[in-house]
Amino acid sequence: MYAKLAWRNMWRNRKRTGITVSAIVFAAVAAVFMQSLNRGSHEQMLDRTVRYHTGYLRVQDVRFEDEPSLDNAFAFDEPFRARIRQSAAHVGEILPRIETFMLAANDEAARGALVFGIDPEAEHRFNGLRDRLTHGRFLAADDAAVALMAEGLAERLGLGVGDTVALIGQGRFGMSASGLFTIAGLVAHPLQDMNRQAVYLPLGAAQHLLSADGHATAALIEPGSPRHTESLAAALRETFANEDLAVLTWRDMLPELLELFEFDLATPRFLTLVLYIVIGFGFFGTVLTMTMERMREFAMLLAIGMRRGRLAAVVALETLFMAATGVLAGLATAWALLFYFHRNPIVLTGSAAQAVKDMGWDPILPMSFAPDQFTTQGLFVFAIAFVVFLFPLVKIHRMNILESTRR
Predict the structure, then answer these.
(1) How far apart are CA 400 and CA 394, in angstroms?
(2) Which end of the chain is less packed: N or C, by CB atoms within 10 Å?
(3) Which residue, 59, 405, 401, 108, is CA-closest to 252?
(4) pLDDT tens readout for residues 140-152
(5) Residues 6+ apart with CB under 8 A from 369
(6) What single-letter DSSP state applies at residue 389?
């Protein structure tokens, strides 16, 4: 009965209810949109860093982190790949890589290069590397003396597709490693530092060059979903517990990026707090007006015998319905809005677009579509609305019936 009475009271004055619910809808949409915009850039930065460099998870020799040398490579073969797949259910791509520093040289100059030995097709499935190709062709697994070079490094060396680059360095156990490679294609690497120094070789060719046949410096493992990263890492650590292999997550490998995210979140959190304060005062103004308009009504109900507790219960349910309606409508609106912008990101133009391109990013404003931001912001807005709506309950308990009936 209380719920039915509260629902009818809520829609008795549609204009007043509409204004209150609209304020809650606006608050929910604004809070979710602000968080989505901020998280979108972080997610893009993280996704590109882990997909093109560290990986979400990697298995490597325990000594490799302190001494990133080819001497600390480990044997990678199909039985090893099978052990990884059998360790847990949420395993996507498994990418063996060889990573080492070498000199990349032309006839006149040499530059430091980060050389990756990769499985070309697996690498493309993991990070879409082929889609970054700007000139020439992509690598094939059986290429022997062919390289894929980042545009920035090619520009520094004055090389292009069809030219020859010399790679000079040191292989396993001090072996000399040098070879001539034809540049098959150029890629626009999304990470600025990598664009200035990355060279990709087919895994077999890199292993032969570096005297590391059958070995890899790291095995990158893609979880079925990023949320499975920690559980998959725990399963792999158990699998390799008795071997000299370390299992690292992106959090272990990128602590500086996490600190950057936390620092970057300080301003948005402050702005979100200001938004909540503004929202709270907006709610309070609406509720104050609504309450004062109904004081005579409340007094009449109490005068004819309705108990204060029951009247407060009806008003509380009315408040609950109003807040829930506003939050749910706001989250639905925010979901539709973010879904559109997630599929059709806002494109930057002019100097802003050029500045973003110079940093190695696409000239867009990426929007996060993470589910938790809807629930978190929805709960915050609901809590603010419900706390503000306690005002009429306090007025009911402190009301002087005679004074209120004279209004």
Answers:
(1) 12
(2) N
(3) 59
(4) 988 888 999 999 9
(5) 36, 338, 339, 342
(6) T
